[in-house]
Description:
By secondary structure, the protein is an alpha/beta fold. The protein has one domain (3-474): Rossmann fold (3-Layer(aba) Sandwich). It is 28% helix and 13% strand. It contains twelve helices and 13 strands. Strands 5-6-7-4-9-12-13 form a seven-stranded mixed beta sheet. A four-stranded mixed beta sheet has the order 1-11-10-8. Strands 2-3 form a two-stranded antiparallel ribbon. α6 packs across α12 and α8 (324-342) packs parallel to α9. It is globular, with a radius of gyration of 22 Å. The termini are far apart. Mean pLDDT is 79; it is low at 1-125. One 2-acetamido-2-deoxy-beta-D-glucopyranose (NAG) binds at residues 46-48, 223-224.
Amino acid sequence: xxxxxxxxxxxxxxxxxxxxxxxxxxxxxxxNHIQNQxxxxxxxxxxxxxxxxxxxxxxxxxxxxxxxxxxxxxxDVDVTxxxxxNENQDQTEFVDKDDERNELKERVISIGGxxxxxxxxxxxxxxxxxxxxxxxxxxxxRPLYSGPQCMFMHDEVxxxxxxxxxxxxxxWRWQPNGCDLPRxxxxxxxxxxxxxxxxxxxxxxxRNQWVSMVCLVESVVPEGQxxxxxxxxxxxxxxxxxxxxxxxxxxxxxxxSNCDNPIIHRVSSRxxxxxxxxxxxxxxxxxxxxxxxxxxxxxxxxxKMKVLYGTFEDGDAVLEEVEMFEGFEVALKSWSQWxxxxxxxxxxxxxxxxLSPTHVWGQEWGAAPxxxxxxxxxxxxxxxxxxxxxxxxxxxxxxRVIENLKPKGVNVQIVNITQLSEYRKDGxxxxxxxxxxxxxxxxxxxxxxxxxxxxxxxxxxPDVWNEFLYAYxxxx
Length: 476
Ligand SMILES: *[C@@H]1O[C@H](CO)[C@@H](O)[C@H](O)[C@H]1NC(C)=O
Ligand SMILES: *[C@@H]1O[C@H](CO)[C@@H](O)[C@H](O)[C@H]1NC(C)=O
Ligand SMILES: *[C@@H]1O[C@H](CO)[C@@H](O)[C@H](O)[C@H]1NC(C)=O
Ligand SMILES: *[C@@H]1O[C@H](CO)[C@@H](O)[C@H](O)[C@H]1NC(C)=O
Ligand SMILES: *[C@@H]1O[C@H](CO)[C@@H](O)[C@H](O)[C@H]1NC(C)=O
Ligand SMILES: *[C@@H]1O[C@H](CO)[C@@H](O)[C@H](O)[C@H]1NC(C)=O
Ligand SMILES: *[C@@H]1O[C@H](CO)[C@@H](O)[C@H](O)[C@H]1NC(C)=O
Ligand SMILES: *[C@@H]1O[C@H](CO)[C@@H](O)[C@H](O)[C@H]1NC(C)=O
């Protein structure tokens, strides 16, 4: 359904649009100013590790916060957003209280995990679908790194640092049916991407994966050979010894939008610009490996997306209001056309990470009606479990677009992480993360009310997403 705005409405939107950008723009200048003034050295007893740190100066304007936070500077994706509760379906089949069976499963400790997993991807990935499998409790080979020792951990996902006591969530290894994932070896990976630039492009879930990748890699790099810098929408991790850059670029809708400011993107009304992607693309088009995602920002119930066609300067601006799903399709089309025109027949590796599910509604797995991921300590064992909130239709739309790109000389590979992540109701930070705003007494009294059941603790689930990337990248 498409609602064309009346001219008067259009003018109103025009003004608020401009006003919005003026505000954002001046704020950006303000922040850049702060940034430039406090280009502080991240002083873990070495001088080469440059960190332009906005956070220390303005704690409530942290660059990497969003979703559940209530700060006016942050994304307004609230905890109830993904709910699309329709009918009272029988939830009992998802009940995770078959403890005996679960305990049994958890006691399977894979001793051979290390060895079996050194298979070098290639042929195996053709005959084996990594996205189908199970979680195996493995406190011998997991986690793959220490959270507190990762120099570049982000506080929004540093669950052990923020007091999470049960750390079993770090001990699960993903076991595909019928084959093993290659074990992540940071030295092999760095050698493989020597002289290259890799960039993650997308939203905070993609950033979550980027932090995981940085932590997976940084432990093998000596001090003085690694830097991390923040510059606006771009965060960059560099390994000097290998001339490697692993970056994250904030672009939650892929196309240009009023959510593009990496800090102030909490807006009450979302506006995207159809077919405008250039100002983002110039930041990642030179990369050798590009990892895209986009999903969560299209999932705001009750909110419509305003799509701006044309430009005000050229006088052909048209603003359409559409359902979020249609907006997503326009973004996919804009993105894929841009790739087709600019990156056809290149040797770049491109990936699209499938949707990351949330665990906001305990009822879905048979917990109490008001339960969330808070206090969950075990994965869901029900095979094929899916949250009602996960929109597989959106991913099918992405699949179709990506499929249509192939004959045009653009190969984007889907990294299918959805099903494995669906099982991990225990893997979210809930309350064990840095809060960027002060919580109220009422919130403190009810931890469920401010639990983050969207992002993932690290070490944790996104490490597996990166094991997929590792396998794809090192096997060819
Ligand atoms: C690993 O597997 C190979 C063959 O699959 C075997 O020859 C080797 O002994 C195994 N190593 C260990 C440590 O189990
Ligand atoms: C690993 O888990 C098993 C079973 O839960 C337990 O008996 C063992 O002590 C654990 N080992 C370590 C090193 O934590
Ligand atoms: C380092 O990598 C960049 C690409 O990321 C490349 O353009 C540059 O030539 C490389 N420098 C050296 C010294 O290899
Ligand atoms: C900083 O980097 C330079 C080379 O880029 C190196 O010579 C020096 O030893 C490094 N310093 C530290 C403290 O790692
Ligand atoms: C930050 O990015 C802008 C362009 O987006 C660039 O002009 C500027 O040089 C960058 N600053 C640093 C310190 O890299
Ligand atoms: C493919 O890419 C080249 C530039 O690399 C461009 O000139 C050409 O128009 C593109 N082809 C299509 C069909 O867009
Ligand atoms: C991912 O895998 C699941 C099954 O594990 C499948 O249903 C889905 O279609 C796949 N593709 C995407 C893009 O999610
Ligand atoms: C948050 O609480 C601390 C003390 O607990 C106080 O110093 C600070 O001013 C508060 N910040 C805001 C934004 O209310």
